[in-house]
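Sequence in, structure out. Go.
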Amino acid sequence: MLAKKYRLSSRECLLLKSSGKRKNTKSVLIISDDIGSPAKFGVAVPKSVAKTAVTRNRIRRRLYERIRLHPAINEAKKSVLIVLHQPIEDGVEFDKIVDDIFKV
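Output:
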């Protein structure tokens, strides 16, 4: 799990959602902005993507773990909120999403 100092609070998510820069890809919406140091990350998985809470939490945990293990996490300067549009099934897509996050 991603350490608490790297996770967005609900207040920070709302702030980021209203003022952040948006990048839309096929399966995710990436909202980023420089709202403080260190860079923080948040993942939103709506019910339209995964019906059960168990599935939504599994997706969220897997993304947080990929972010935690990414070598560029200490150099990240911007806070990022990831909002999924489509279901994710394979690990390759998780890696692609995390790479997109660190390119923003």
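Check: The helical segments are 10-19, 53-69, 91-103. The chain is about 40% helix and 20% strand.
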